[in-house]
């Protein structure tokens, strides 16, 4: 017997059912049932391949109830690449079972780059139709519950920026004086583009300050993560091809991101969606150049020309940064170099915050319960500021801090560094 | 009672978030870390009727009342990391009772005890005790994910058993829900207690066949102030084996004394890239702990014993990171074997510590006889080995089983036991009569019948069909 699940069964065959994945899984920590964690899902794959069970709405539910945080993959002694496998599993299941309409529509919209860009760039004035400001100024809350978009009434989300990043920074940034140390392309990603342009500007300014020539092509598409992680490899591939084309042109020394999720997509996940694409070879040539701005700066050597920033700071490691890109030391090194910063490590800094993009839209209450642990960790540090290298994590942590009334602000790591340089 | 009524009753007791009834989800409960599930073709005749996650002893008591009255089998399940098919579903209409929500964890430094729920993952107890400068010593390689309930129910042992004993030595008292729903308490926080039969210890190692453990009083000890670890590298397998008992009688009591053969050295190195000596025939991994002033002398002494047996090289780990790296490698033994073969059975027999060289020879011999790949690692210092029988398909599984059977029979002839760690489960029931003889075995079945007359608690485990 063999079907579309058989290749996945092969990949999962080495599972010894030891349960180490249970001990690190944020979803298992809340639900504690076999179907909620990696080993259960691996054995589900086995059954799908053996046709002991069939894809169904219910199976699709259990397979998407995972934040893809990679904690299980990092711990698995059998070396099973669980997270990749689950994305492929979603793809196959959604080949048999219809994907929820809202998701399908959103991904189609994303694949029309210009339309997507226009909506998010000019959408800010229309937000008040749907949202109202929260009294504590933490962001918007929805006027109506919109379950399809994952908006329940208490979720606090940031406002769309009135001016997207591409209208805040120039297309090319050149160091004011001295030799150009490197020529890079900066891939800001949607969150920095449309929601947190200040963070994008910070990455841009920091690079220029450190003698780097920075290019930001205007025509980038979304990196594709929401589609790819949901198993919509078709949309993922369209976006990956657009971005691969732009990133290959220009002869850049490095591809810099300030968004852990985009970085992981560009460096790893494109491999899955471009498997038999003509853009495959171009991607092979560039994937090794993708770097988070902090690891790039540490490699290049960065200016210590900081001014004092008197803050107690803690750091959350985004899953896509710490496990996706294996970057955790570098942002700490830079932040600790800023005079005045008192750095306090939070417990389980590398544990998933529960956001996971579309996961928090679909399973908002569950993602909040996972986030509660993160908020507890933050609260125990008594820090003024939580910094992180992922805007989605930041959004979700902000939501948690606001709802729980914890007096701590959040910033993208780049914004704190930019303050240290006196750039913001 | 029909399925619908049962599910409605159970849902009333535990709440609808705490019961699994979807058939596709229940299917996942037929698995455990034991050898059967490793077979590609594995499927169970029986799928549980429901899996529940009760939140208290009272809820468990209500569940047991129904099960007892209506004859539903109940299997307590921790993380299902048991290696002896301890949680195999053997009967129709089985209720799986997961302990995941019983996570009480209180440390009482004044009495050197911890009071914990069975669903607590063992590493959490170690962490919590550590904050008070205390140690919970038992450390099965699975302590990062297995539950303390599972550890107590299997009397799990670990690396430090050689000095500190197994889980049993640290269980001072229990709360248990019996088969009929009655709740009892055994033991207490006293250091000494000789009143009557030791019921606490009867439940330790009973593998869920006598009652559901709902709370555990554990003994703690002061955290040893310092430790050092070392790796002795041997070119000769039997020399490594001989070194074990020589070290054990040298006057030093190592807190850990582990053994890994060449197959394991290579497999583990592939996983963790630590620079293990992939060309060595065997390594011994040892640790000494206690007063920092005496540790160097102990390391010296062990080294000189090993030198007498032709050791190739000795590496000493001094910093916590180096020490941890050694044990991280050791903990990866079993899972890393998935890089050598698709599937594996890992045994856990033991024999007196001076018989190790013979055991290693026998294992090689049997592997050759049946053309089965074998590997071996284990807790050499306490005589407990993990012979591994590797296979890639169902036909090889049959041959691997023959090797295992003959090896176990051999272990009994040299005064050993078929299980020193993982328990009998559903895997080793066939060896039990040989190990005990009819009279002692009869006493055990008698105890089972007294406490669980309807055989609803983990039926099949320990006794197979012999009840
Ligand atoms: C990689 C790996 C390494 C391992 N290393 C070791 C080792 O070094 N030493 C060792 O001893 N074991 C080891 N094991 C085996 C296993 O981890 C232990 O047997 C452990 O104690 C099982 O715990 P669990 O939570 O997984 O229990 P489960 O497997 O779920 O259950 C084990 C048994 O305990 C019973 N049980 C569980 N909870 C209760 C309860 N509350 N009341 C009554 N009965 C209960 C079950 O019914 C079952 O019979 C290892 C396993 C793996 C996969």
Question: What features would you highlight for this structure?
Answer:
heterodimer; A: 424 residues; four-stranded parallel β-sheet; 12 strands; 10% strand; globular; B: 467 residues; seven-stranded antiparallel β-sheet; five-stranded antiparallel β-sheet; 36% helix; binds flavin-adenine dinucleotide
Quick rundown:
The complex is a heterodimer of chains A (424) and B (467). Chain A has helices at residues 6-12, 20-24, 28-31, 38-50, 57-64, 71-75, 82-93, 101-111, 113-122, 127-130, 189-195, 197-209, 225-229, 233-248, 260-273, 280-286, 293-300, 319-324, 329-337, 358-362, 364-381, 391-404, 413-420; strands spanning 131-133, 140-142, 156-157, 172-173, 182-187, 212-215, 254-257, 290-292, 311-316, 341-343, 385-388, 409-412. By secondary structure, chain A is of the alpha/beta class.
What does this structure look like?
- The complex is a heterodimer of chains A (424) and B (467).
- Chain A is of the alpha/beta class and 424 residues long.
- Chain A is 49% helix and 10% strand.
- In chain B, the strands form 4 sheets. Chain B has a 7-stranded antiparallel β-sheet with strand order 15-12-14-13-17-18-16, sandwiched between helices. Chain B has a 5-stranded antiparallel β-sheet with strand order 5-6-10-8-9.
- Chain B is globular and about 70 Å long.
- The two termini of chain B are 25 Å apart.
- Chain B contains 17 helices and 18 strands.
- Chain A binds chain B through residues 13-14, 16-20, 22-23, 32-35, 39-40, 43-44, 47, 50, 52-53, 56, 58-59, 62, 76-79, and chain B through 20, 22, 24-25, 27-29, 31-33, 37-38, 40, 43, 51, 53, 79-81, 98, 100-101, 121, 123, 142, 144-146, 271, 332, 334-336, 338-339, 342, 344.
- The complex binds flavin-adenine dinucleotide.
- Flavin-adenine dinucleotide binds at residues 32-33, 75-83, 86-87, 99, 118, 140-142, 146-147, 149-151, 153-154, 156-158, 207-208, 212-213, 334-335, 421-422, 458, 461 of chain B.
């Amino acid at each position: 017997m063999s079907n579309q699940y058989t290749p996945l069964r092969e990949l999962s065959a080495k599972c010894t059912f030891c349960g180490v994945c249970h001990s690190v899984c944020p979803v298992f920590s809340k639900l504690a049932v076999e179907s909620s964690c990696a080993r259960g899902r691996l054995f589900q794959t086995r059954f799908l391949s053996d046709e002991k069970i069939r894809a169904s709405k219910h199976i699709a539910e259990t397979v998407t109830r995972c934040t893809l945080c990679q904690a299980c993959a990092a711990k698995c002694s059998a070396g099973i690449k669980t997270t990749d496998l689950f994305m492929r599993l979603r793809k196959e299941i959604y080949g048999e079972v219809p994907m929820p309409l809202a998701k399908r529509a959103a991904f189609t919209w994303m694949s029309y780059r210009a339309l997507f860009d226009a909506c998010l760039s000019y959408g800010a004035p229309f937000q008040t139709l749907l949202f109202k400001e929260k009294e504590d100024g933490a962001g918007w809350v929805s006027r109506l519950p919109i379950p399809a978009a994952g908006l329940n009434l208490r979720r606090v989300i940031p406002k769309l920026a009135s001016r997207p990043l591409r209208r805040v920074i120039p297309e090319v940034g050149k160091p004011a004086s001295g030799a150009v140390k490197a020529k890079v392309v900066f891939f800001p990603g949607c969150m920095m583009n449309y929601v947190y342009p200040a963070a994008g500007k910070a990455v841009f300014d920091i690079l220029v300050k450190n003698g780097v020539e920075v290019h930001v092509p205007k025509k980038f598409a979304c990196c594709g993560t929401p589609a790819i992680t949901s198993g919509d490899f078709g949309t993922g591939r369209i976006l990956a091809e657009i971005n691969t084309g732009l990133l290959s042109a220009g002869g850049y020394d490095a591809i810099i991101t300030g968004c852990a999720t985009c970085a992981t997509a560009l460096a790893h996940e494109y491999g899955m969606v471009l498997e038999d694409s003509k853009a495959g070879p171009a991607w092979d040539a560039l994937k090794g150049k993708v770097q988070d701005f902090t690891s790039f700066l540490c490699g290049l050597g960065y200016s210590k020309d900081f001014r004092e920033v008197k803050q107690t700071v803690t750091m959350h490691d985004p899953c896509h940064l710490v496990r996706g890109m294996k970057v955790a030391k570098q942002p700490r090194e830079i932040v600790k170099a800023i005079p005045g910063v008192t750095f306090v490590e939070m417990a389980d800094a590398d544990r998933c915050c529960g956001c996971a993009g579309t996961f928090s839209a679909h399973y908002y209450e569950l993602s909040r319960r996972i986030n509660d642990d993160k908020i507890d960790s933050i609260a125990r540090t008594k820090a003024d500021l939580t910094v992180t290298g992922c805007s989605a994590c930041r959004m979700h942590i902000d939501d948690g801090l606001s709802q729980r009334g914890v007096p701590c602000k959040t910033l993208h790591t780049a914004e704190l560094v930019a303050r240290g340089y006196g750039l913001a | 009672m029909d399925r619908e009524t049962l599910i409605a009753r159970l849902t009333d007791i535990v709440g609808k978030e705490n019961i699994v009834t979807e058939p596709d989800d229940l299917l996942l409960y037929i698995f455990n870390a034991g050898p059967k599930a490793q077979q590609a073709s594995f499927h169970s005749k029986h799928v549980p009727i429901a899996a529940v996650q009760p939140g208290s002893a009272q809820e468990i008591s209500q569940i047991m009342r129904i099960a007892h009255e209506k004859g539903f089998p109940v299997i307590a399940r921790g993380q299902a990391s048991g290696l002896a098919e301890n949680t195999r579903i053997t009967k129709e209409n089985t209720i799986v009772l997961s302990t995941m929500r019983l996570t009480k964890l209180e440390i009482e430094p004044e009495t050197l005890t911890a009071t914990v729920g069975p669903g607590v993952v063992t590493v959490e107890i170690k962490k919590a005790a550590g904050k008070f400068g205390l140690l919970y010593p038992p450390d099965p390689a699975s302590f990062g994910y297995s539950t303390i309930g599972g550890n107590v129910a299997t009397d799990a042992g670990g690396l430090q058993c050689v000095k500190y004993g197994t889980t049993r030595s640290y269980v001072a008292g229990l709360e248990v829900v019996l088969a009929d729903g009655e709740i009892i308490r055994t033991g207490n926080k006293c250091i000494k207690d000789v009143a009557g039969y030791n019921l606490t210890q009867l439940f330790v190692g009973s593998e869920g066949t006598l009652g559901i453990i709902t709370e555990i009083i554990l003994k703690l000890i002061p955290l040893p102030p310092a430790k050092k670890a070392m790796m002795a590298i041997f070119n000769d397998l039997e020399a490594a084996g001989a070194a074990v008992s020589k070290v054990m009688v040298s006057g030093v009591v190592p807190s850990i004394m582990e053994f890994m053969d060449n197959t394991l050295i290579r497999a583990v190195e592939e996983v963790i890239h630590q620079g293990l000596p992939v060309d060595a025939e065997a390594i011994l991994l040892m640790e000494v702990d206690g007063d920092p002033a005496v540790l160097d002398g102990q390391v010296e002494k062990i080294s000189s014993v090993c030198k007498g047996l032709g050791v190739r090289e000795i590496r000493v780990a001094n910093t916590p990171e180096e020490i941890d790296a050694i044990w991280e490698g050791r903990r990866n033994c079993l899972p890393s074997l998935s890089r050598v073969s698709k599937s594996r059975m890992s045994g856990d027999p033991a024999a007196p510590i001076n018989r190790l060289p013979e055991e290693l020879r026998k294992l090689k011999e049997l592997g050759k006889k049946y053309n089965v790949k074998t590997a071996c690692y284990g807790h050499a210092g306490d005589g407990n080995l993990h012979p591994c029988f590797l296979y890639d398909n169902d036909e090889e599984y049959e041959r691997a089983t023959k090797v295992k059977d003959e090896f176990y029979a051999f272990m009994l002839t040299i005064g050993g036991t078929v299980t020193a760690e993982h328990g009998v489960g559903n895997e080793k029931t066939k060896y039990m009569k040989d190990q005990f003889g009819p009279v002692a075995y009869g006493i055990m079945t008698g105890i089972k019948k007294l406490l669980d007359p309807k055989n609803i608690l983990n039926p099949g485990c320990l006794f197979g069909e012999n009840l």
